[in-house]
Amino acid sequence: MIVLSGRAELGPRALGHRSILAPATDASMKKVLNRIKDREDYRPVAPVCLEHRAPEVFSPGTPDPYMIFDHGTRPGWADKVPAIVHLDGTARLQTVNERQSPLVHRLLTAYERLSGIPLLCNTSANHKGRGFFPDVASAAAWGGVGAIWSDGRLYQPA
């Protein structure tokens, strides 16, 4: 699903306003995301995780809203979320809390209630060599995913 929320962000990697979000529970999701973004298969996919749950899943799991550091994946979690775990057992974590990213925080909270997993795969909502999708029409024209969330509405392009 593509999330288009408010303005696109520039500068530090504060994803969440223009993101492609997907379940991390299937190892093949990394390949799917890399294929739809026309990237090499080996490219890693990052997790976005509820800040208060990150220490349970990652080491150290400290707040990291800008994806600055690699975090180790704690025992028992690598098998649960294989799509975001690098070959060395780390992940380039982005944490979110309600204050800094209310929409993504609500989405992750709801997803955790359903699945028990407090994170999703998170990659930028753009296509290779192009900028972020500015609106629903451009994301739909791209056709890489089946659902787009924007300004409180769910779109499912044909």
Automatic annotation (TrEMBL):
Residue span(s) of domain Carbamoyltransferase C-terminal: 3-137
PANTHER family: NODULATION PROTEIN U
Protein name, per record: Carbamoyltransferase C-terminal domain-containing protein
